[in-house]
Amino acid sequence: DPGKIFGPLLKKQQHSTGKKIIEIKTLYLVRHGESTWNDTFNKGTHRSAFVFVLGYIPGLIKSLLYELYLILSGKMDSWFYDSPLSYLGLRQVDDLAKFLKKYPSNNNHTTTLKVDTNTNNNMNNEYLLSVLRSDPSAPKSKMVASNLRRAISTLAGGFRLRLSRRPEEKILVLPSLQEISRNPDTLSITPPHTPVSASWIDKDSKICDFRSIFTKQLDVSLHTGNKPIDTNGLKRMTAFCDYIFQNLEEDHVVVGGHSIWFRSFFRTFLPYTIDHKSKTRKIVNCGIIAIRLMKTTTTSDNNKNNTVEAKYMIDPQSITVVYG
Fold first, then answer.
1. Backbone torsion region of residue 227, taken as left when φ is above 0, otherwise alpha when ψ lies between -120 and 50, otherwise beta
2. Which long-range contacts (CB under 8 A, 24 or more apart) does 69-74 make?
3. Is the C or the N end of the chain the one with fewer CB within 10 Å?
């Protein structure tokens, strides 16, 4: 239970003036827009159960025929495998971009926003949106995404104004964020260390130039291909936490990912005594939840070599709905 580890440490740190024993990073969890797989197999919130059931068989036939067309035409694309954003998903991504545009950067304000890690004062939406937009006054943030196309497309389209304003910025692809499931839609179609190809839907979209962003503003140096058979969600979530604390200098990380991965993340790293809806419900398509992730190091009693282990916990008071 993370709460049993961090509870005493938080009390100790409150009364300590020495070296901090807890490190903190703020994460912005961005769920992808609706995918073609979702369109075929999930009801979603945009249609009633009756409409979904009525259209299920015709929709399945349509998707199977389109899959056959993609195979016969020799395109490296798929409706089911590493399923891309659907047309509805693209509209959701566009709505996210418009939401962020509603709150324009204050370019005349050059004072750096201060972060108080002992309170939740900086978990207000004005501050969080400033970080998401990467305003000149905001602290630096890093954008990372799953190696599945729909998560990458969501960050590329939803944060298009940020990326166009910062052409040197790149979205880092992290395989540890790959969705927790063995369904075909959770398997990456992109070979290791290979540029990501825009789907047929992304290519026709007018909301941004996906192909240009994928070519110039995507870092696939860490993309090692599909998740290994001997891995699991817990290992990948822990690997993700290890990576952002050990390798990223930014204290703010924008994370493009998936509903089951995010829900499992809350279940694993929230205190077990906390009954929060994030443990049972999924983030909506293109929704953004901001959290503080804390890290400390301990020596396991069962470890004969006294090896130091990293432990993580989500601050339950920091969970903030930014969008969705």
1. beta
2. 70/200
3. N
Question: Would you call 103 exposed, middle or buried from its count of C-beta atoms within 10 A (0-12, 13-18, 19+)?
Answer: middle
Is the Cα dihedral 131, 99, 322, 157 positive or negative? negative
- Inter-residue long-range contacts of 130-133, CB under 8 Å, 24+ positions, other chains counted: 130/105, 131/26, 131/28, 131/252, 132/28, 132/100, 132/159, 132/162, 132/254, 132/288, 132/322, 133/100, 133/103, 133/105, 133/161, 133/162
Exposure string for 12-30, b = 16+ CB within 10 A, e = fewer: ebeeeeeeeebebbbbbbb
**Nearest alpha carbon to residue 236 among 272, 260, 271:** 260
Assigned token pair, 97: 């971009």
Q: What are phi and psi of 10, to 5 degrees?
A: -65, -40
Distance CA 90, CA 43 (A): 17
Q: Which residues pair with 255 in a beta bridge?
A: 29, 144
Q: How far is CA 323 from the centre of its chain?
A: 13
Residue 115 has pLDDT above 50, yes or no: no
User: For residue 314, how many other CB atoms are within 10 A of its CB?
Assistant: 23
Overall pTM surpassing 0.85 (yes/no): yes
Type of residue at 86: S
Yes or no: say if 315 and 25 are a contact pair by the CB < 8 Å rule.
Answer: no
Q: How far apart are CA 258 and CA 285, in angstroms?
A: 9
**Count of residues in the chain:** 324
Condensed to tens digits (0 to 9), the pLDDT of residues 208-240 reads 999 999 999 999 999 998 888 888 999 999 999
